[in-house]
Amino acid sequence: KNEVEQSPQNLTAQEGEFITINCSYSVGISALHWLQQHPGGGIVSLFMLSSGKKKHGRLIATINIQEKHSSLHITASHPRDSAVYICAVFKRGGMEYGNKLVFGAGTILRVKS
Amino acid sequence: SAVISQKPSRDICQRGTSLTIQCQVDSQVTMMFWYRQQPGQSLTLIATANQGSEATYESGFVIDKFPISRPNLTFSTLTVSNMSPEDSSIYLCSVGTGGSYGYTFGSGTRLTVV
User: Fold this and answer.
1) A58-96: burial string, b at 16+ Cβ within 10 Å, e else
2) Which of A45, A54, A106 minimises the CB distance to B103?
3) I need a surface site. Which of A54, A56, B60, B77 has the fewest CB within 10 A?
4) What are B40-87's pLDDT values in tens digits?
5) In sequence order, which residues have a C-beta less than 8 Å from that of residue A64 and are 6 or more positions away?
6) N- to C-terminal Cα distance for chain A?
7) What residues have CB less than 8 Å from A9, skipping those under 6 apart?
């Protein structure tokens, strides 16, 4: 079983819809990352969080440490949000920015106009 | 947060040849990380590059196949040596930046080996 599981694997939405992507993990972590990867391959870091909730524009990320679960929400989705969204965790006890970053398989999001 | 310039963005290479990928960071960073993303897969850490010392490779990756240089605190290269079609992947560099985002990634190098 993977240490980081994402759902759904694929998601198609209509423009304007509210989108939720889920991430569950089975290890102790010091922080969780949400990343966005566009078709060209480049990756943008959206959020790093260790508790509570963060908001940036139309994006909201939440984490529940007790339940080992995080969600990424996109409000008023737009075709430009189409990308792969990746959850990654810093395993507790590893180097803060080192080789203890574990990635989920990613969620492929397509937003249709 | 830091800005990374990664080159080349893509390349098509003949098997048996080598390709060197460069990452330039706009600020000094202690550690740089190199990742591979095979088609349809998530990211896998190849190695951690520290300035002034040998890179630390993850299980399954060896220096002869993926030599790394880290001549200063803003620059690193990854070479993919003696390439085969199985090396066709996206290669990304990354640095830890602290603050709200934690990591900055390069724009990726999409490598196709024919």
Assistant:
1) ebbbbbeeeebebbbbbeebeeebbbbbbbbbbbeeeee
2) A45
3) B60
4) 888 999 999 988 788 999 999 999 999 999 999 999 999 999 999 999
5) A70
6) 36
7) A105, A106, A107, A108
